[in-house]
């Protein structure tokens, strides 16, 4: 079997109901597990941005991305390996304040990962970390070993490509220019 | 002065008329009644064909679209009416057929409440349609209908589903038709890379053994003449896919026949011998390629397609050429050199002779025994001067029909290729008679397929639709039986089938009919069918255990074709 790579897929679509369903259906059809998913408004008005990660082969990712892009209201879809993007995740760790204060190791862990304490009360404290996926997992393990984690949550990955331009802006401008040119011919 | 306000249903009628719709296949029901009420006043302009089951409406719309090149329209109610069209929607998707299905839906206030005859049609059809959209407000109708027709007919055509909530049918709106020819997220004719064209030109100019694979994209792109100019200039032999059969007429000297599992020996064998393979508007279906690992490995592959997701999906394209093939074929033709590939083209001959001697002659001109399916198809094709439209069902009837029918006109094949939908033929043939009223429509089906949508004989009767029904009855589900014989040790598990008396059925519907059992009356029966105005059911009792040959067994390489069942 071919080696699988973790790919990050960035999709831009119109902001219409039901598009997420169409995008995930492409994964379902091939029984590919989505590792993480983030959906939010993009920098362009009316355009939504999806950041999806999954493990698969180079051959499959190419077909998956083309089939996503084929959806009518999807503007563009691209895939990247980790070396082609800057990526971050956000995690929140709810820890027991008494346990946290009892153990001097705990605050060292927070400092080591450059995490922030965003809430403290007598019962629990909340630590927030924005970082790479591995760091988030590692800090969770470290805090868990200290027996002070009450709750843990992490976001899906968000990413920007290392290229200089927002491709979607360029693409939309080019599409419109081409349309007007063909129409005037 | 404020604009005139009309109901959403009336707005739909005007929007359809603005799109040039003249024919609708449909079936009324609760959630679409306001639309049917509006249709009553438009029935002189919008010819509504009442089918007998909504699946029939979808297939009829497909048949209409395939022969006319226009968008087929079907109108059904919510819930079961809508779900009954699903097979047709999925079929139209995989076979790139432009249809618009308009289905009623419960009022927007009831959505999500499990209301009577509510079904999540958009959710169901998203993966199997080009676009599906729910109209919840009458003000959206003009936009949604314009978008639906633009999407269905442009680029790689396909089915669009409009889920029309009842409140939007009743609400009043100021209607103004919308003209739409641009959607920023959708590129129906992607840009062609001039470097790819240059690369393709070099490959074609240097090729000694080029082969063109002709797909339905040629017909959909109306590029039949451009294809001819291209292959004639470069002198390249062609194989046609099932759906591309009439894109290059059968009598063209460069047409070497049909590709695929039951195609012709020459183009299949030569696929694995050519040095450059030029695929035009086809998608390398597994029934065409056989075993992918051994498919055309020796050749450089040039793939012309309008759909970027088809490029390197199954067969890696060395040179992808995106864009409508009407445009890209013309580009290539201008740039390539005139060539002669006499020796290469001659090399198809031994295979043609071998197939003729070992398969075709026995099938079409048997000395005795029961009538063969290929023989029946050939006789009908000849009797129509090879000018008729062929509609087929799925299975042996389809393979025999497509192998032995001949095509001298564009858009002459209507068959369910990708989905392989049994029951497709009769309703699709009805649609074809409306899409091409001046042509003869020959509908070949088996006893299994006819019974899957036999209710549409009611539509044939009511519309006097001139479908020439050729029922090749072998008392078996023949294709499955053939596979059981070949791969399951002749264990005929539920493939023998008891049949009704089709003459009585035809007579109950008032459709003239004749049963032919002997070879001596075959041509007479066909003549009677063709000479009869309107519909006719010709039942031909064919050999019970006939086999479609040649055959590339599933999983085998494309160049391996069995010519008989002994090997």
Name the poorly predicted regions of chain B: none
Estimated structural class of chain A: alpha+beta
Helix content of chain A: 25-40%
Unreliable stretches of chain A (pLDDT < 50, length at least 5) are none
Subunit organisation of the chains: heterodimer
CATH class of the largest domain in chain B: Alpha Beta
- Let me know the average pLDDT of chain A: 93
Strand content of chain A: 35-45%
> Which chain pair has the greatest contact?
A-B, 23 and 21 residues
Number of domains of chain A: 2
Q: Please, what is the average pLDDT of chain B?
A: 97
* CATH-level-2 architecture of the largest domain in chain A: 2-Layer Sandwich
Pattern of helices and strands of chain A: EHEEHEEHHEEHEEH
Strand fraction of chain B equals 15-25%
Please give a structural write-up.
The complex is a heterodimer of chains A (185) and B (567). Chain A folds into two domains: 5-80, 2-Layer Sandwich (Alpha-Beta Plaits); 86-154, 2-Layer Sandwich (Alpha-Beta Plaits). Chain A is built from six helices and nine strands. In chain A, strands 5, 6, 7, 8 and 9 form a five-stranded antiparallel beta sheet that branches. In chain A, strands 2-3-1-4 form a four-stranded antiparallel beta sheet, sandwiched between helices. The mean pLDDT of chain A is 93. Helix content of chain A is 38%, strand content 38%. By secondary structure, chain B is of the alpha/beta class. Chain B folds into three domains: 5-174, 3-Layer(aba) Sandwich (Rossmann fold); 194-346, Rossmann fold (3-Layer(aba) Sandwich), CATH 3.40.50; 370-541, Rossmann fold. In chain B, strands 3-2-4-5-7-6 form a six-stranded parallel beta sheet, sandwiched between helices. A six-stranded parallel beta sheet of chain B has the order 11-10-9-12-13-14, with helices on both faces. In chain B, strand 12 (276-280), helix 13 and strand 13 (300-305) form a beta-alpha-beta unit. In chain B, helix 1 crosses helix 2 (33-40), helix 3 (54-68) runs parallel beside helix 5 and helix 11 packs parallel to helix 14 (325-335). At the A-B interface, helix 1, helix 2 and helix 6 of A face loops of B.
């Amino acid at each position: 079997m071919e080696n699988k790579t973790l790919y990050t897929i960035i999709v831009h679509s119109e902001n219409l109901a039901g598009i997420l369903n169409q995008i995930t259906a492409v994964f379902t059809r091939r029984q590919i597990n989505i590792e993480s998913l983030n959906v939010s408004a993009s920098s362009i008005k009316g355009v939504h941005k999806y950041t999806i990660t999954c493990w698969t082969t180079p051959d499959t990712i190419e077909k998956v991305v083309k089939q996503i892009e084929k959806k009518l209201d999807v503007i563009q879809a691209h895939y990247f390996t980790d070396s082609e993007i800057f990526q971050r995740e956000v995690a929140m760790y709810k820890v027991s304040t008494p346990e946290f204060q009892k153990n001097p190791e705990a605050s060292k862990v927070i400092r080591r990962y450059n995490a922030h304490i965003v809430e403290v009360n007598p019962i629990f404290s909340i630590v927030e970390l924005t970082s790479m996926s591995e760091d988030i997992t590692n800090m969770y393990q470290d805090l868990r070993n200290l027996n002070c984690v009450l709750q843990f949550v992490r976001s899906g990955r968000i990413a920007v490509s290392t290229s200089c331009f927002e491709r979607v802006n360029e693409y939309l401008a080019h599409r419109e220019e081409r349309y007007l040119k063909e129409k005037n011919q | 002065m404020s604009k005139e306000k009309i109901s959403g249903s009336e707005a739909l009628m005007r929007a359809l008329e603005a799109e040039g719709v003249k024919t609708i296949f449909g079936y009324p029901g609760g959630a679409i009644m306001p639309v049917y009420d509006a249709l009553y006043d438009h029935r002189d302009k919008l010819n509504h064909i009442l089918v007998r089951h909504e699946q029939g409406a979808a297939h009829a719309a497909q048949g209409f679209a395939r022969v006319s090149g226009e968008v087929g329209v079907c109108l059904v109610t919510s819930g079961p009416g809508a779900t009954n069209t699903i097979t047709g929607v999925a079929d139209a998707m995989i076979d790139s057929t432009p249809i618009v299905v308009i289905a009623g839906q419960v009022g927007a206030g009831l959505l999500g409440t499990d209301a009577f005859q509510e079904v999540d049609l958009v959710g169901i059809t998203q993966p199997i349609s080009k676009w599906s959209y729910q109209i919840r407000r009458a003000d959206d109708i003009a936009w949604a209908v314009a978008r639906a027709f633009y999407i269905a007919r442009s680029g790689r055509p396909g089915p669009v589903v409009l889920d029309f909530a009842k409140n939007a049918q009743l609400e009043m709106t100021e209607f103004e038709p919308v003209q739409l020819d641009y959607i920023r997220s959708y590129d129906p004719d992607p840009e062609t890379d001039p470097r790819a064209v240059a690369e393709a030109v070099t490959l074609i100019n240097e090729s000694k053994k080029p082969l063109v694979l002709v797909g339905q994209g040629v017909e959909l792109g109306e590029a039949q003449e451009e294809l001819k100019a291209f292959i004639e200039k470069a002198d390249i032999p062609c194989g046609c896919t099932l759906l591309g059969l009439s894109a290059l007429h059968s009598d063209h000297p460069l047409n070497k026949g049909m590709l695929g599992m039951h195609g012709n020996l020459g183009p299949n064998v030569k696929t694995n011998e050519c040095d450059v393979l030029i695929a035009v508007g086809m998608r390398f279906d597994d029934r065409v390629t056989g075993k992918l690992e051994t498919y055309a490995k020796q050749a450089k592959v040039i793939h012309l397609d309008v759909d970027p997701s088809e490029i390197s999906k199954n067969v890696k394209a060395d040179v992808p050429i995106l864009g409508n093939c009407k445009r890209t074929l013309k580009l290539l033709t201008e740039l390539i050199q005139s060539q002669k590939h006499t020796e290469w083209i001659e090399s198809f001959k031994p295979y043609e002779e071998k197939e003729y001697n070992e398969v075709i002659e026995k099938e079409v001109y048997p000395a005795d025994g029961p009538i063969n399916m290929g023989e029946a198809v050939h006789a009908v094709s000849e009797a129509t001067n090879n000018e008729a439209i062929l509609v087929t069902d799925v299975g042996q009837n389809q393979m025999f029909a497509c192998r032995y029918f001949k095509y001298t006109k564009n858009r002459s094949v209507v068959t369910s290729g990708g989905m392989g939908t049994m029951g497709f033929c009769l309703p699709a043939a009805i649609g074809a008679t409306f899409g091409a009223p001046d042509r003869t429509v020959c509908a070949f089906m088996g006893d299994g397929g006819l019974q899957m949508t036999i209710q549409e004989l009611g539509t044939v009767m009511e519309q006097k639709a001139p479908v020439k029904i050729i029922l090749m009855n072998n008392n078996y589900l023949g294709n499955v039986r053939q596979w059981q014989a070949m791969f399951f040790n002749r264990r005929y598990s539920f493939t023998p089938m008891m049949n009704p008396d089709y003459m009585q059925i035809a007579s109950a519907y008032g459709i003239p009919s004749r049963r032919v059992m002997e070879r001596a009356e075959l041509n007479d029966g066909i003549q009677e069918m063709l000479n009869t105005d309107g519909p006719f059911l010709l039942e031909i009792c064919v050999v019970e255990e006939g086999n479609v040959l040649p055959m590339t067994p599933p999983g085998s390489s494309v160049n391996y074709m069995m010519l008989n069942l002994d090997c």
